């Protein structure tokens, strides 16, 4: 990535013509070709050109008074152009950032499933974990628990529980109930938030709903003290 802090003006021509008057800005030139112009407030760029595009240096014209550098960024598909006139360069550096692993989200379904597998007491007392991702012919059940009173419990875990999730669990229960080693099989629909329509459908089908408190479960696992 190339970072240039410069006093510059920017003209965009294409579907809409725009002009940024001369001011000091951060110009970001990314490895994929993206060129963006930032000011010292707000995260959104003032203007930008997304790839595929090319950046070329051109000679300042007679009317480009005090211009020390002139850039042209052209979009390969649309032909839209950015013309950048640079009057003073305050900083110019390039940095190899390498491959970024991307944003890791906290509280996704995989995290909920893992925490719930370690804390099956959230579902009920004296339950034991048989397996995570218990396989069936139509896909894996998130958790399969053993009930000490007999039978098993299939748990479907969602961040936001809706009718589709209840339907999914219903199909799992129908298949699992055919196995004499597992029957009788009951269902638990567990989510951080369960929509009212999903609760009604689950109750009608004999499926118990459990609302998960992710922060509390995370605190229990880590042993971190909690004020409330």
UniProtKB/TrEMBL annotation:
It is found in: Cytoplasm. One of its GO terms (molecular function) is endonuclease activity. Transmembrane segments: none annotated. Keywords: Cytoplasm, DNA-binding, Endonuclease, Hydrolase, Nuclease. Coiled coil: none annotated. Residues 2-101 form the Endonuclease NucS N-terminal PH-like domain. Residues 108-227 form the Endonuclease NucS C-terminal domain. NCBIfam families: PRK03298.1 (NF002876). Belongs to the NucS endonuclease family. Cleaves both 3' and 5' ssDNA extremities of branched DNA structures. This is Endonuclease NucS. It comes from Microbacterium aquilitoris.
């Amino acid at each position: 990535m190339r970072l240039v802090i410069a006093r510059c003006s920017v003209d965009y021509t294409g579907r809409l013509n725009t002009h940024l008057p001369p001011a000091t800005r951060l110009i970001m030139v990314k490895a994929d070709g993206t060129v963006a112009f930032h000011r010292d407030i707000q995260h959104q760029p003032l203007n930008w050109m997304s790839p595929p595009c090319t950046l070329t240096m051109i000679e300042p014209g007679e009317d480009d008074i005090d211009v020390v550098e002139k850039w042209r960024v052209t979009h390969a598909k649309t032909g839209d152009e950015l013309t950048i006139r640079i009057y003073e360069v305050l900083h110019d550096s390039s940095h190899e950032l390498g491959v970024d692993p991307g944003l890791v989200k906290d509280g996704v379904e995989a995290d909920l499933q893992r925490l719930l597998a370690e804390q099956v007491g959230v579902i009920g007392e004296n339950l034991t974990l048989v397996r995570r991702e218990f396989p069936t012919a139509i896909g894996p059940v998130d958790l399969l628990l053993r009930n000490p009173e007999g039978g098993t419990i299939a748990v479907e875990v969602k961040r936001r529980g809706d009718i589709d999730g209840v339907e999914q669990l219903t199909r799992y229960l129908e298949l699992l109930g055919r196995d004499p080693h597992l029957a009788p099989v009951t269902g638990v629909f567990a989510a951080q938030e369960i929509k009212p329509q999903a609760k009604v459908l689950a109750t009608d089908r004999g499926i118990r709903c459990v609302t998960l408190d992710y922060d509390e479960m995370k605190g229990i696992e880590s042993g971190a003290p909690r004020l409330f």
